[in-house]
């Protein structure tokens, strides 16, 4: 009788151990196999410009490490860097556009790829 009880306890612990192991392995597998999100700078730029209510004539065009966008309000060409922080660049563009509106000026090109923006009238 003692052997049967001992066998039952060993079997119970074995089953419990299996469930704990299976839960751990399954949880870790799901985390390990989760793919990394794909970065799409063009889609990110379009979204940021839309959020800031900056209209564009057509989709941004990427070339090397830069993206070119033509604004719909003034037909201004804007160059963005793919390698820098796009929200910061879009924020800078918004400040520049506000300043141009206050001054009553139109820019032909705004280059945001470098530390200091370059505005060509």
Set out the fold topology.
Blueprint: H1 2-32, H2 41-51, E1 61-63, E2 66-70, E3 77-81, H3 86-103, E4 109-111, E5 118-120
Parallel strand pairs: 3-4
Antiparallel strand pairs: 1-2, 2-3, 4-5
Report on this model:
- It is built from 3 helices and 5 strands, in the order H-H-E-E-E-H-E-E.
- The termini are far apart.
- It is of the alpha+beta class.
- The protein has a 5-stranded mixed sheet, covered by helices on one side.
- The model has no long low-confidence stretch (mean pLDDT 87).
- It has 2 domains: 1-34; 41-120, Cell division protein FtsQ/DivIB (Rossmann fold, 3-Layer(aba) Sandwich), CATH 3.40.50.11690.
- It is 50% helix and 16% strand.
- A hairpin with a 6-residue loop joins strand 2 (66-70) and strand 3.
- It is rod-shaped.
- It has helices at 2-32, 41-51, 86-103, and strands at 61-63, 66-70, 77-81, 109-111, 118-120.
Ranges where pLDDT stays below 50 over 5 or more residues in a row are none
Estimate percent helicity. 40-55%
Strand content: 15-25%
- How does CATH name the architecture of the largest domain? 3-Layer(aba) Sandwich
Q: CATH homologous superfamily name of the largest domain?
A: Cell division protein FtsQ/DivIB
**Main sheet overview:** 5 strands, mixed
Key features of this structure:
Rossmann fold; single chain; 121 residues; 5-stranded mixed β-sheet; alpha+beta
């Amino acid at each position: 009788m003692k052997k049967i009880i001992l066998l039952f306890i060993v079997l119970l612990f074995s089953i419990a151990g299996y469930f704990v192991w299976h839960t751990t392995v399954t949880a870790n597998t799901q985390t390990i196999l989760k793919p990394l999100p794909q970065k799409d700078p063009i889609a990110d730029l379009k979204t940021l410009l839309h959020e800031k209510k900056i209209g564009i004539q057509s989709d941004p065009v990427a070339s090397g490490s830069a993206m070119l966008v033509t604004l719909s309000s003034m037909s201004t060409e804007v160059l963005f860097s793919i390698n820098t922080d796009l929200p910061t660049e879009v924020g800078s563009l918004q400040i520049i556009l506000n300043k141009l509106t206050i001054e009553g000026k139109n820019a032909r090109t705004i280059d945001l790829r470098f530390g200091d923006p370059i505005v060509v009238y």
